[in-house]
Specification:
By secondary structure, the protein is an alpha/beta fold. It is about 30% helix and about 25% strand.
């Protein structure tokens, strides 16, 4: 991943989170809705939307993606933090994002996912 720049956002800069999918609606839509509910329940002013990976909006701050879609997400949204997960049933990326937003911490990709 030569030439990849690690993107970091302050929690207060995060206004739009995009939960991406390959093309369909399946598991990623459920994940997006779960994250949307958790962010709303935490009282955060952050919008969560669901989008195909090739249609990530330009103003996106954070992308939550299955690890198989991460490289494509980084190409489509180079200014967004891309958080990845391996399993929809144990989505550590959404949990990490929520904890960071609630705590007011910087949001960045996991170590080892950028160089």
């Amino acid at each position: 991943m030569e030439g990849v720049v690690m993107v970091v956002k302050r929690a207060d800069e995060v206004k739009l989170v995009v939960f991406v999918c390959e093309a369909g609606m399946g598991s990623s839509l459920i994940g997006a809705n779960q994250l949307k509910k958790k962010i709303k329940d935490a009282g955060l002013d952050v919008r969560v939307v669901h989008s195909p990976v090739n249609e990530i909006p330009a103003q996106t701050d954070v992308v939550v993606a299955h690890e198989g879609l991460a490289d494509r997400a980084r190409k489509v949204a180079p200014n967004a933090v891309v958080l990845t997960f391996k399993n929809f049933m144990n989505n550590t990326a959404s949990d990490k994002l929520l904890r960071g937003l609630v705590a007011g911490e910087e949001i960045s990709a996991e170590a080892g996912h950028a160089s």
